[in-house]
Design goal:
about 260 residues; 4 strands; two-stranded parallel ribbon; mainly alpha; single chain
Length: about 260
């Protein structure tokens, strides 16, 4: 959903910045954004049909809570997560950055295709900051615009550096090494139960069909104990307040989510 939103914003921005290169501008925008709104309207209509507006509100409240309850900013953690995300994508990022610099340094005005690519990359990168958590897997959302920029820099009708000439081989080699290293790590890694005594206690005092309410931030215990959680939320940090290890305190819970 963030990728599609980034592309729509980039498209609208391109029309605004290059209005003379588009015909029927308002018609284009109305059609595009109407098509975007249609799935959301169908989604709301379905909830209305089954009489579940309260559940829809629960979903929206939870998403809003996640977006605004950011973790304390730590440059070390952010840089580490960015480095982790880039470790397998650095050739793609390098190609995209080189193409971005080439577009910005070109004496000719950027084409509407180039403007769209730059805006798409900027909006997609902005989603990496949602919630202020900077998780490495969030970076996946920036891959489509990076691919578009990188591909434009590899067009055969332009002069290319050694890196650009061998970019495909470098990309394949980097991806293969990243996959092999991660595969070996996770395939050979042993995952014993994190709390064997608690798993044994749950197993001794409940039956396999019982629902268990887990009042800690350890959702993996449900899988280790082979039990079903007692509420709709897999974890209850939003109910009791997220723990903040850096400040050794617990944030306020979200009372709107209690009727679950």
């Amino acid at each position: 959903r963030y990728q599609s939103g980034a592309a729509l914003l980039a498209y609208a921005g391109t029309i605004v910045l290059r209005p003379n290169e588009f015909d029927r501008k308002m018609v284009r925008l109305v059609l595009v954004f109407s098509g975007t709104a249609l799935p959301a309207l169908l989604f709301v209509a379905y909830y209305a049909r089954i009489g579940a507006f309260a559940d829809l509100k629960l979903l929206l409240v939870y998403q809003a809570h996640y977006a605004r309850d950011a973790d304390p900013f730590s440059a070390t953690i952010v840089l580490g997560r960015v480095a982790s995300a880039l470790s397998g994508l650095w050739p793609l990022v390098l190609l995209a950055v080189r193409q971005t610099i080439a577009i910005l340094r070109n004496s000719k005005p950027a084409s509407k295709g180039e403007i769209f690519q730059l805006l798409f990359a900027a909006w997609a990168a902005a989603t990496f900051c949602i919630g202020g958590r900077f998780f490495p897997h969030y970076f996946v959302q920036t891959i489509p615009p990076l691919v578009l920029l990188a591909a434009q820099g590899l067009e055969p009708d332009r002069s290319r550096s050694w890196f650009e000439a061998h970019a495909i081989a470098i990309l394949v080699t980097s991806a293969a090494l990243f996959t092999a290293i991660n595969g070996v790590f996770y395939w050979t890694r042993e995952n014993p139960p994190s709390h064997p005594q608690l798993v044994a206690f749950v197993d001794a005092h409940t039956s396999p069909t019982d629902e268990v309410l887990l009042w800690v931030w350890q959702p993996q215990l449900l899988f280790e104990a082979k039990r079903v959680f007692a509420t709709r939320l897999l974890v209850n940090e939003v109910l009791i307040g997220r723990g903040d290890s850096a400040q050794l305190q617990r944030r306020p819970g979200l009372t709107e989510l209690w009727p679950i």
